[in-house]
Amino acid sequence: MSGERLVMMANQIGRFFAHEGERAPASLARHIRGFLDPRMRAGILQHLDAGSAGLDPALREALHRLRVPADAQERVAVGEAGDKTACR
């Protein structure tokens, strides 16, 4: 798939999650991790590394989250919610 088409598709998926506000990047990252073909994930991450032209801000944040293990993301999300015991 071409980089331009991949960016368009990823931005469309990102817009679907936009109604979640601050939670959108985390939801988008989970969706990309769970449903995008590994080659597509690799392609969009390469695009991010090449300057991320055309990527929506929430999508850029979601892609950065893909590089952090999922369990670490959960601990951070819980910690942000104020439950400090979950961060141990």
Please outline the major beta sheet.
Answer: none
What is the straight-line distance between the termini? Answer: 42 Å
Mean pLDDT: 84
Shape: globular
- What is the count of distinct domains? 1
Number of strands: 0
Tell me which oligomeric state these chains represent: single chain
Instruction: Using the CA coordinates, give the radius of gyration.
Output: 14 Å
Strand content: under 5%
Give, in order, the helices and strands: HHHHH
- Show unreliable segments: 83-88
Number of helices: 5
Helix/strand class: mainly alpha
Helix percentage range? 55-70%
What does this protein look like?
The protein is mainly α. The protein has one domain (about 5-85). It is built from 5 helices and no strands. Helix 2 crosses helix 4. The chain starts with a helix and ends in an 8-residue tail after the last helix. Mean pLDDT is about 85; it is low at about 85-88.
Write the layout of secondary structure elements.
Elements (H helix, E strand, L loop, with lengths): L2 H15 L6 H12 L2 H12 L7 H10 L3 H11 L8
Helix pairs in contact: 1-3, 2-4
